[in-house]
Amino acid sequence: MCFIGAIELHARARRSAAARSWRHVVWAVPLLLGGALHARAQPATEAERLLERAKRYEYGVGAPQNLDRALELYCAASAHGSSEASYQVGWLYLTGRLGRRDEVLAAAWFQRSAGQFPPARAQLQRLDALDRPLDQPPDCVPRAALTARVLPPRAPLAAAPPARLAQPSPAPAATVRAVERRDIVALVQRLAPDYRLDPALVLAVIEAESNFDPNARSPKNAQGLMQLIPATAARFGVSDVWDPLANLRGGMAYLRWLLDRFNGDLALALAGYNAGEQAVLRHGGIPPYPETQGYVLRILRTLENQGGNRRG
Which of 63, 55, 21, 61 lies closest to 38, judged by CA? Predict the structure, then answer.
């Protein structure tokens, strides 16, 4: 079957399914973070109940999106012993989704969960903070009280005095090169697993959106590598869309959200990334826009040719 035919069949099937209650779809969306799957409808413990509610508020699935309420519930779940909740608090502080990026507070929350939640240990290794002395237990700081902080560099080890004084050679001139495609590929390969995304999928989206140009701007004011419009950038805590790392994190967070929102349906998630999730909901499937249909087909073909993970 040709790709256009597949898309048309997909759209008809989605419109038929839309006649059934969306409530069942919403409650079936896997609320996943850090790789944890919660398949049962009723969590067994108070910590798990709080964790599930927090995820709903963070991603706007089954509840209005409210990051302040999500933070409050994650902190409560952590107080009841949930290591995953501690990790999620640290992740909110690290990514700047609450408006400011606080590496010190994030690292303290990762340390709280590192013993039982491996992704927290991985984040600490990246921050070089596994053994740093940080306040424990860390505070649950609301958005309004957050300050932007970075972890200070470690003090260098004292070097042995030289045997004899020598005239220092002149330092080489510092060179700064532009961000290249290989840098972007390396970043995506490192970051995509944090969002439970196949790097091949993210790279295909970047190629379709900006062709790996960090300075790309569309006529609709979509900006940067993953072509974030200002509203989407603000929604996912991106304060500088021209920072390639921040743009990648925001775009991947949005792509992960779309996959969760559409129950892992990659075609619908891609259509939502191009046309907006409301257009997908309004049409009950891939919108009948030539640009969006071509966009979805182009990325699916790229993944098929590369053998990428079609379900993200």
Answer: 55
Residue-wise over 44-57: b if at least 16 C-beta within 10 A, else e? eeebbbbbbbbbbb
Domain region containing 38 = 29-152
Reported as a single tens digit per residue, the pLDDT across 242-266 is: 999 889 999 999 999 999 999 999 9
| pLDDT at site 258 | 95
Catalytic annotation, residues: 209
Kindly tell me the burial class for residue 120, based on how many C-beta atoms sit within 10 Å of its own C-beta (0-12, 13-18, 19 or more).
buried
Q: How far apart are CA 286 and CA 283, in angstroms?
A: 7
The phi, psi pair for 207, rounded to 5°, reads -60, -40
Residue 297 domain flag: yes
44-87 residue pLDDT tens: 699 999 998 998 888 776 778 888 999 999 999 999 999 999 99
